[in-house]
Amino acid sequence: MALKELDNSNINKHLGQSSQYKATYDPSLLVREPRQSNRTHLDLDDDNLPFIGSDTWNAYEVSGLTDNGLPVAGVGKIVYPSDNKYIVESKSFKLYFNSFNGTKLGEDPEEVREKIALKASKDLSDLLETDVKVHVFSNYEVLSDNTTANEEWQSIVSKDKPYNEYITLEDVYPIEEVVFDTYKETPELLKVIEDAAQAVAAEWKGKRAGSMGDTGCFSFFPAKNLGAYGDGGMVTTNSEELYQKMLRTRQHGIDMKNPYHYEHIGGNFRLDALQAGVLDVKLRYIEWWSRQRNENAQEYNSRLNKNLAPLAEGPTPPFVSSEGYHVFNQYVIRSSKRDNIRKRLNDSKIGCNVYYPYPIHTQGCISHFGYSEGDFPVTEKACKEVLALPIYPELTNEEIHRVVDVMEIK
Questions:
Q1: 0.70 cut: is pTM over it?
Q2: According to the 3-state scheme, what is the secondary structure of the chain?
Q3: How many degrees, rounded to 5, is the angle at CA 193 between CA 189 and CA 194?
Q4: For residue range 298-332, what is the model confidence (pLDDT) as tens digits?
Q5: pLDDT tens string 160-181
Q6: 223-263: per-residue pLDDT in tens?
Q7: Residue 162: inside a domain, yes or no?
Q8: 58 Rama class: left (phi>0) / alpha (psi -120 to 50) / beta
């Protein structure tokens, strides 16, 4: 792909414009933006940048066609150095990958995904004048602990692993090994905040959820694995400075050592004493409850894995990494006939639920972004297939078998 230095008119050729999706692959849709203006504004020297790392686009949905016209979907991961001179303009990125949708690229799905990755890697490397790594994962690679996929990706770029479902604690970059000397604009953005809302007692490589970042955020909503009698939550930290700031923030910003003096604006975020009392009692049982949820999940897995072939709907158990400890706030299966299974369970008075039935890009609150149904096929497919089964600690094996028996009814 021939390139020339891009001016502002080219940078803005997609922004604010009504764009038609191209029917076939078109690398000319890609637009790069120079980083120089921002670096100049921040007084950064290109030859001595005060940061390391990469720009990573995770879980980017792409698709193409086989030579026979069979649609093939995949999940792309794109990585390039953060110290290079250019970035990809985001709308051009979307238009470029959409141009693969109607393009015939190979005899089978694997070849289609490989050719998308090869073409994208070459086009983006040429565009950005740097080495861009691209891999397109199949649904199987995305939703399973596929050793081959892991090894293949590890050979492409270090410290990155395939994307897994939201229910699993992900591997994180060892940020504690990096020393930050200066940061010119907003140093607070370097904080690592864990969303551990329903992960009390969960672990990743021996570390508890809530202990791996600067702060960990937990929810005590009654439906969580450690729930109060009403709304509540907790933040954990090993930083004395953050701890003292949060103490002030939860009580209107008041200085606890100097009453009626306010260091900053806060609010009324104190946990109600009633909720704290309920949680104090329930906290004594959380380890046992977590073990029971794991045992229940294993019982489900043994039935579903054993009977997977005879089931017409093919429910798939949730992925669980061998490097983590899952607490199963939900036990979420996937099935192409989810609604049929859900109806059978409801008719038998067995509770189940869908988290979540509608993708965020189809919601009215973000309609101004211009997304529509079909833009994110992997997400849309998941929303049509996921179903949470009963998993509470007191569930008996007989009840679990009853759930699966009802699911198996033809």
A1: no
A2: CCCCCCCHHHHCCCCCCCCCCCCCCCHHHCCEEECHHHHHHCCCCCCCCCCCCEEEEEEEEEEEECCCCCEEEEEEEEEEECCCCEEECHHHHHHHHHCCCCCECCCCHHHHHHHHHHHHHHHHHHHHCCCCEEEEECHHHHCCCCHHHHHHHHHHCCCCCCCCCCCCCCCCCCHHHCCCCCCCCCHHHHCCEEECCCCCCCEECCEECCCCCCEEEEECCCCCCCCCCCCCEEEECCCHHHHHHHHHHCECCECCCCCCCECCCCCECCCCHHHHHHHHHHHHHHHHHHHHHHHHHHHHHHHHHHCCCCCCCCCECCCCCCCEECCCCCEEEECCCHHHHHHHHHHCCCCCECCCCCCHHHCHHHHHHCCCCCCCHHHHHHHHHEEEECCCCCCCHHHHHHHHHHHHCC
A3: 155
A4: 999 988 876 554 444 567 888 888 888 999 999 99
A5: 434 333 333 334 445 555 555 5
A6: 999 999 999 999 999 999 999 999 999 999 998 788 888 88
A7: no
A8: beta
- Domain of 35 in residue numbering reads as 8-156
Q: Is residue 278 included in any domain, yes or no?
A: yes
CATH number for the domain that contains residue 300: 3.90.1150.10
- Examine the domain organization and report whether 26 and 148 are in the same domain: yes
Q: Which residue has the tokens 């414009």?
A: 17
